[in-house]
Write a structure and sequence with these properties.
single chain
Length: about 170
């Protein structure tokens, strides 16, 4: 089908960019964690709350706090695929879920380790204006679709969603 080719191309692009995003997150968390202690002036709590906090750490915290709801929304979108989507989109949604659940857990642990606020479980309550976030109306529209119409809208929304995540990582 023509959508098969579009799905393959979007999947390739999303995978490539998602890999870049995952690498950025992993490196950011690793660098931040590595740089938070061992300077001799901390109190054993990784420097959190001390005068040694850097602007980079603040940017890391903001990024992770915004990325958690972003990932949760991708999971919400992916959960709509079974029973509505064709096999290729259903498989893509399963891969999205498999990748983003562990990333949320990692980011949550990192925020807790540094004594930072973990965003609530509602993907819409925090950072609803973050890059690439779908509106409740967008999600309702997606939920109302079946078959090829669902596949097309899912791929469109997921591409926008992941482009937003890339923008967040670049910022």
């Amino acid at each position: 089908t023509p959508w098969g080719y579009v799905a393959v191309m979007i999947t390739y692009t999303v995978r490539r960019r998602a890999a870049a995003l995952i690498t950025t997150v992993a490196l950011g968390l690793g660098v931040s964690a590595c740089g938070s202690g061992g300077d001799g002036g901390d109190d054993g709590h990784g420097g959190h709350g001390s005068s040694t906090s850097s602007e980079g750490t603040s940017a890391d915290v903001t990024f992770v706090q915004e990325m958690i709801p972003h990932h949760r929304q991708a999971l919400e979108m992916a959960s709509l695929a079974p029973g509505r989507a064709g096999p290729e989109v259903t498989a893509l949604a399963a891969r999205i879920s498999a990748a983003q659940d562990p990333e949320i857990a990692t980011m949550t642990r990192w925020l807790k380790k540094h004594g930072e606020k973990v965003p609530s479980g509602d993907a819409h309550s925090d950072h609803s204006n973050a890059d690439g976030m779908m509106s409740p109306e967008d999600l309702e529209h997606l939920q109302s679709l079946q078959g090829e119409a669902f596949d097309e809208e899912f791929l469109r929304q997921m591409a926008v969603h992941h482009e937003g995540a890339i923008t967040m990582a670049e910022d």
